[in-house]
Design goal:
With about 625 residues, this protein is of the alpha+beta class. It contains 18 helices and 23 strands.
């Protein structure tokens, strides 16, 4: 078995966290600014560095998997999201709302998240998985996948975290950057945007050897107005590594000077260089110290006692890594003996079939699998997990027989009154090691709840009882819409995005739309309508928004400027939202969002948008 010396593993892990803190602190003050910049030193310094969700969320993940007996899967991390993560910005808030509605990963990361699942919220969380699986990218990438699908399923964000985890795991033992990049790229699909952006960046660096000129090329091909869009930022990180010539400071300053999501690009460049070099230069490390700064004081993270400093964090991670490598059958161990990689299999740093299966799971995030005792059950939502009373929803239940003999299985649906499933019960004999699918057609009542969990009882004949499997459906939003003064028509929309271009047919005109909101109590709320068309929004008969900003970046954020977000009072019972939207000669887009102004703008989950009075 190959050996990674314990002291070396400790040094590289410690340097990973110190490097991440240094790069994040360098980039945080200019986060979201397009650049280019010209920094060669921290623009702002404080003991412990600047608090950053990039690092503190990984402290939460370490605590969560430790309490779960070191089991790393999306369901464990989903619980940690709701218990410990206060942040509700961007993809975080949407995923947490989906989890509170009952959607399991990967649905929690895919549903109503088309904008944000291509962004940086998950690539920034890769280091913990690499450090728990050093020199074992197959393991690190599987861990990273389980993390990323909670809030980025189906998007580039998953590929970004998988790539970062692979690279960081590999550089524990491969210290040639180009070789490490080749190996890491093999862990994500070559046709994804991130793989293409990194490949182009490497090619342009070889041609130009000038980071500013390469940045221009990246911006020409991959620039996105959203600063956190992942492909451009992964390219900037890799550019920092390539331009560093082995110099830690050059790596993080180049990544940050490229602009956009600078705290993330600097932090990842710093962590990779820390592992690669095995140390962070005193110039960059000493001003920050070893204390870990967090946003616990105001609730960014909550209900947790964070580890006090980087040394304690490193001790815990290295100890856990030793255990996890053994549990997962890695051909390398952490030991007191000198590092010896002579017995490391040639293919261990390359993907296996299990990694390619993860690719397929991310490309189709509408299935949830459940590991029972005798069978594996897969619930395929066949697209969005939504329903309305006018169209039956088809759900496929797949049964995989794990046994070497045939099994007879009965599925029995348990649903609330006024819900219907056809068939309510069905039996099938599954061949040994075989798989069988059963379709069910679900019909929802007129008084459609915002979310409803149905249950499928799985009864394996002449076997111990199994647990029931949940099938959670989100009620579609019931809109009344009329175009250019025509007749009002009911439109069921599956998520928070309004299909304005479909409504307008790509032509100038006026659309009016109404939605009713039922609230269980009277309380303050924020209505957000990010939109680049001319619009007026009225709430309970009073106009609260009236603007036209054709260059407005339309994104479903939990908060925004007063031109597009307004504080209102939700009445107990029914409330009416009325819109008048005018399209001119440019494509238009919009979302409608409801958040709580008093709890970090948490998305409201107990309102009902599926009915009308």
């Amino acid at each position: 078995m190959a050996v990674l010396n314990r002291g070396e593993a400790w040094r590289r892990t410690y340097a990973c966290w110190m490097g991440k803190n240094a790069g994040g602190t360098l980039g945080a003050p200019v986060e979201g600014q397009p650049g280019p910049h010209n920094f060669d030193w921290y623009p702002k310094l404080q003991e412990g560095g600047i608090p950053n969700d990039d690092l503190e969320m990984q402290l939460v993940w370490l605590d969560a998997i430790k309490r779960a007996g070191w089991r790393v899967d999306a369901t464990v991390l989903a619980q940690a999201w709701l218990t410990h993560i206060g942040y509700n910005w961007c993809e975080y808030g949407i995923a947490k709302r989906n989890l509170r509605w009952g959607l399991l990963p990967p649905l929690s990361g895919a549903y109503d998240n088309d904008f944000w699942n291509d962004c940086m919220g998950s690539p920034i969380r890769s280091e913990i998985w690499a450090c728990l699986a050093p020199a074992s990218p197959r393991i690190a990438v599987r861990f990273a996948f389980e993390d990323a699908i909670v809030d980025h399923a189906g998007g580039e964000g998953v590929w970004g975290e998988m790539f970062n985890a692979a690279l960081e795991s590999i550089v524990f033992v491969k210290h040639d950057l180009d070789e490490a990049l080749d190996l890491a790229l093999a862990f994500i699909p070559p046709d994804c945007q991130i793989a293409r952006a990194i490949t182009d960046t490497r090619k342009w660096w070889q041609e130009l050897k000038d980071w500013r000129k390469v940045r221009e090329r990246i911006a020409e091909k991959y620039w996105h107005r959203e600063p956190t869009h992942a492909p451009q930022n992964l390219a900037f990180t890799v550019l920092g590594l390539l331009a560093s010539e082995g110099d830690f400071g050059k790596a993080i300053t180049t990544a940050v000077n490229c602009g956009q999501d600078t705290d993330c690009t600097g932090a990842t460049a710093g962590s990779v260089m820390g592992i690669l070099l095995g140390e962070v230069p005193k110039k960059w490390a000493e001003p920050l110290g070893e204390t870990i700064a967090t946003n616990l004081s105001w609730g960014g993270i909550r209900n947790i006692v964070p580890l006090p400093d980087v040394r304690v964090l490193t001790d815990e991670v290295v100890s856990a890594a030793q255990r996890l490598l053994a549990w997962h059958g890695a051909p390398i161990c952490i030991a007191d003996a000198p590092t010896d990689l002579s017995d490391l299999p040639e293919d261990w740093l390359r993907p296996d079939d299990g990694i390619y299966e993860l690719w397929e799971r991310n490309k189709y995030p509408w299935r949830v699998d459940f590991e029972l005792n005798a069978v594996q059950v897969g619930v395929d939502y066949r697209g969005l997990p939504t329903i309305n009373p006018e169209v039956a929803k088809t759900v496929s239940v797949w049964l995989l027989n794990r046994e070497p003999i045939p099994l007879t299985v009965t599925l029995a649906w348990d649903v609330p009154s006024h819900w219907q499933v056809e068939p309510m019960s069905s039996s099938v004999t599954i061949p040994a090691k075989g798989i069988v699918g059963i379709n069910a057609h679900v019909c929802a009542p007129v008084n459609l709840p915002q979310t409803q969990t149905l249950w499928v009882q799985v009864r394996v004949h002449e076997r111990p009882s199994e647990v029931a499997v949940p099938v959670t459906l989100v009620g579609e939003r019931k809109w009344l819409v009329r175009k250019n003064g025509g007749e009002w028509q009911t439109e069921w929309l599956p998520d928070s995005q309004l299909p304005l271009e479909r409504w307008f047919g790509g032509k100038p005109g006026v659309v009016e739309a109404k939605l009713w909101v039922w609230s269980p109590s009277t309380r303050p709320a924020v209505i957000g309508f990010p939109c680049n068309a001319a619009f007026q929004l009225s709430f309970n008969g009073a106009e609260i928004l009236n603007t036209h900003q054709p260059d407005y970046l339309v994104r479903p954020g939990q908060q925004g400027p007063a031109s597009h977000y307004a504080r209102v009072t939700l009445r107990q019972g029914w409330n009416e939202v009325s819109l008048r939207i005018e399209r001119h000669d440019r494509p238009v887009d919009a979302y409608l969002l409801f958040t709580d102004p008093t709890d970090l703008h948490r998305h409201l989950t107990d309102i009902v948008l599926t009915q009308s009075p």
